[in-house]
């Protein structure tokens, strides 16, 4: 039987994008088979290219969010550069932008304008706070939005709120933009019309606030910051082991607590002790509960602790650093790594998490150099060699 093609094979996406939110969204589309044309500034390109040099001289953010795309470098302030983008959009299925508020509209590249001109086009506007309201003009960077959405207030220890270690607001917006495009493509398949899609970082991350948000709105009190511990379940925390590791375990019900007490702690009487027998009691006596668990695990290596917990049917995990994740045995066993090409040579990257059993594997495209595809793309929209040379000479294309 022939393998099924990737779901977005034949779909063309044009993106005037920068940083993380829009690039991560369009990278998901590229992984699923779409052709993604990334429009960059002529003077350095997407500013995420300059964040660091950790990936063999390339920026780690850029490598993460941009493999599998084609890069064209244009000056959109020049009418000729803007005309080239409009020609690309005229042949595209999807347009995505996350420019500063108002910038796309000034260029005529906002979703409403483009969809009016191209009824089948799906045009996505990604912003920090939305197109209207008192915050519409505010600069919106990931950590700022994490603060505004309350994520920082529920992350950290009782004495210290902290931001998430990944750009959660950017990722949330990216994934809603990604799913919004997929939904709009389904609708276009039945109606023949595309249409605008709007996503804001604040609204995306507010949705992800889930339990803490609803807890606060309906109970009146925000959940306490508890570090790695769970606010309403005990024991549910990371505990040090004899070899310097840390193992996190989670007891979800009183039956599991009795098994933990008997088979791991070596204290079966704790299973029926009124101070520990119920989750409410264990939370009320959290320090004493944690001390019992910590004392037992401190005599074991991390491997021994995990083996013992697994044998007792207690959910557990190793607290790994990022380098250890890159060598994770489960990811290795499932062959979840690949190499992607780049201007610096091959780079290791994880496979996209959506897999297609019986279908083509997710596309493993290269990380593009700035303007790597400029000439081919300009020629594809009808520009002559002389016109392209003039754009390069005048600094409108690179």
The secondary-structure element order is EHEHEHEHHEHEEHEHHEEHHHHEHHEEHH
Weakly predicted, low-confidence segments: none
Tell me the strand order in the biggest sheet: 3-2-1-4-5-8
Helix proportion range? 25-40%
Radius of gyration, whole Å: 26 Å
Distance between the termini: 45 Å
Main pleated-sheet profile: 6 strands, parallel
Overall average residue pLDDT: 95
Structural class: alpha/beta
Tell me the overall shape.
elongated
Strand coverage percent: 5-15%
Give the beta-strand count.
13
Helices, by number, come to: 17
Write a brief caption for the model:
This protein is 39% helix and 15% strand.
How does this structure look, described?
With 398 residues, this protein is α/β, with parallel strands linked by helices. The chain has helices spanning 21-31, 60-66, 79-90, 103-107, 111-117, 142-148, 168-191, 201-208, 210-219, 254-263, 279-284, 286-297, 302-311, 322-325, 329-333, 374-380, 385-393; strands at residues 12-16, 35-40, 69-73, 94-97, 122-127, 156-157, 160-161, 195-200, 236-240, 246-250, 315-318, 337-340, 347-350. The strands form 4 sheets. The protein has a 6-stranded parallel sheet with strand order 3-2-1-4-5-8, with helices on both faces. Strand 9 (236-240) and strand 10 form a beta hairpin. Helix 1 (21-31) packs across helix 2 (60-66), helix 1 (21-31) packs across helix 7 and helix 7 (168-191) packs across helix 8 (201-208). The two termini are 45 Å apart. The model has no long low-confidence stretch (mean pLDDT 95).
């Amino acid at each position: 039987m022939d393998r099924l093609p990737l779901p977005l094979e034949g779909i063309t996406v044009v993106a005037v994008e920068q940083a993380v939110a829009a690039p991560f969204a369009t990278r998901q589309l590229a992984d699923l088979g779409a052709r993604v044309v990334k429009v960059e500034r002529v003077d350095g390109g997407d500013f995420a290219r300059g964040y660091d040099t950790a990936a063999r001289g390339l920026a780690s953010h850029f490598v993460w969010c941009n493999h599998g795309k084609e890069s064209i470098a244009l000056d959109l302030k020049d009418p000729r550069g803007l005309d080239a983008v409009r020609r690309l959009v005229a042949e595209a299925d999807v347009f995505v932008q996350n420019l500063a508020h108002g910038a796309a509209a000034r260029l005529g590249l906002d979703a409403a304008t483009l969809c009016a001109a191209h009824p089948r086009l799906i045009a996505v506007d990604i912003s920090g706070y939305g197109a209207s309201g008192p915050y519409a003009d505010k600069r919106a960077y990931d950590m700022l939005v994490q603060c505004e959405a309350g994520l920082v207030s529920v992350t950290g220890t009782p004495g210290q709120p902290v931001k998430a270690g990944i750009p959660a607001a950017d990722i949330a917006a990216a994934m809603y933009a990604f799913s919004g495009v997929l939904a709009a493509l389904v609708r276009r398949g039945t109606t023949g019309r595309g249409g605008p899609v709007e996503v804001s970082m604040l609204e995306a991350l507010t949705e992800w606030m889930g339990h803490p948000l609803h807890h606060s709105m309906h109970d009146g009190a925000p959940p306490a910051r508890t570090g790695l511990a769970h606010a309403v379940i005990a024991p549910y925390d990371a505990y040090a082991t004899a070899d310097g590791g840390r193992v996190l375990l989670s007891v979800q019900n009183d039956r599991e607590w009795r098994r933990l007490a008997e088979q791991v702690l070596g204290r079966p009487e704790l299973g029926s002790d009124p101070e520990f027998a119920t989750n409410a009691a264990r939370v009320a006596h959290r320090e004493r509960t944690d001390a019992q668990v910590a004392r037992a695990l401190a005599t074991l290596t991390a491997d021994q602790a995990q083996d013992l917990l697994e044998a007792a049917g207690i959910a557990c995990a190793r607290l790994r650093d990022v380098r250890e994740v890159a060598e994770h045995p489960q990811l290795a066993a499932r062959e979840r790594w690949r190499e992607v090409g780049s201007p610096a040579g091959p780079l290791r990257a994880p496979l996209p998490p959506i897999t297609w059993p019986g279908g083509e594997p997710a596309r493993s495209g290269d990380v593009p150099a700035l303007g790597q595809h400029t000439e081919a793309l300009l020629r594809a929209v009808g520009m002559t060699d002389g016109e392209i040379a003039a754009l390069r000479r005048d600094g409108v294309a690179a």
